[in-house]
Amino acid sequence: MKNFNELDASWRIEKIEQVVMKGERRRLAGCNARLGVHGKEVSFPMLSITIGGITGYGWSRISKENAAALVGSRVGDIFSEEQWIDDRFQAIQFPLLDWLGQVRNQPVYELLSGTKTTSPLLVPCYDTSLYFDDLHLATDAEAVRLLQDEAMQGYNEGFRGFKIKVGRGAMHMDLMEGTRRDIAIVNGIREAVGPACNISIDANNGYNLNLTKHVLKETAQSNLLWIEEAFHEDDRLYRNLKEWMAEQQLNVLITDGEGLAAKPIVEWAEQGLIDAIQYDLKDYGIINWLKLAERLARSGVKAAPHNYGGFYGNYASAHAYPAIKGFLFVEWDEAQVPGIDTSGYSISDGKISVPQAPGFGLHVDKSYYDNQVRDNGWSV
Asked: Which CATH superfamily is domain 121-363 in?
């Protein structure tokens, strides 16, 4: 299956290091329905793992103590024919996959999909940067113009899909005034980007059932692709919403599951109440997603893994895309992080061009990383 026999059985984990890498988005991100300003800074914990003198890099929240317990582990105990990486090592799966790609001189997407490519992989994506950046503006017209400008910034960068945060009336504005502005902005962005782009909305649980119906009805002209986290998952409410949308002939997907998802959410999806599951790609992990996607595919449920605020998930999601059945679009949170060269990736006509470089194709400046580990990180 995955042919780990060629790995040197004498290889062991020699060293694990971690540091929080920091960078910036291209502009400040405002509020959503339940949180304040997200800001311009991005950060994520980057782990390096050295085995056989070869180093892989990737996202990991593992603690220093838990990492220390893994040092000395044999490669034969790490990799699994059944699920790529044994359960004990799931917390460091991203740097391990990057390491395996380095060893085999293959991009991670080829490893996971088992398919050789002769040209760069192209993966559909959407711009996830349209937050409540308008709360300081007095009129809906001004707010619409601002968000149209932001959407067109993404359009000019190559995006052809956009996710718009809604739910201004949940906390930041008067209920009906905020809802009216949500509607105006959604329809205004559709007008700006044209009919061919995918646009979706994300309420971060800031709506209730009736508000959801009202917004969907008032934005019907904009042909939304999906509504995300309309309210906290509830099978009765979603069944009601599904029946109403059928009556209204609204073909909008329901997506949910990125945060503290209800335990039965997958079962509800299998019952036809939710169209796509959105567990976070990094926290849930690629390995778990591979297994879940097999299950979801049996009932036609799609995958739309969450990725926001971590930079690294942009690239890991692109590599996971061809291996996860039913993966709709990569959620792209544009940012730059010193010490990491992402120039192998580019976005054009709504798709990410993924490099054929080994591992995840992110070139880490080793001297920069080592200095960061020495000054702000840890090593075991």
From this structure: Enolase-like C-terminal domain (3.20.20.120)
Q: Which of 62, 83, 56, 92 is nearest to 360 (CA)?
A: 56
CATH number of the domain located at residue range(s) 13-28+39-109+364-379 in this protein: 3.30.390.10
Query: Residue 118: its pLDDT value, please?
Result: 77
Residue spans per domain, the chain: 13-28+39-109+364-379, 121-363
Number of neighbours of residue 114 by Cβ within 10 angstroms: 10
The pTM of this model reads 0.96
pLDDT at 174: 98
pLDDT in tens, 326-343: 999 999 999 999 999 999
**Chain CA centroid to CA 163, Å:** 12
- Token pair recorded at residue 369: 């990383």
Residues of the chain with pLDDT under 50: none
DSSP designation for 144: H
DSSP string of 37-95, one letter each residue: --EEEEEEEEEEEEETTEEEEEE----HHHHHTTTT-BHHHHEETTTEE-GGGGGGHHH
Pairing of strands 79-80, 54-59: unpaired
- The predicted structure's pLDDT at residue 133: 98
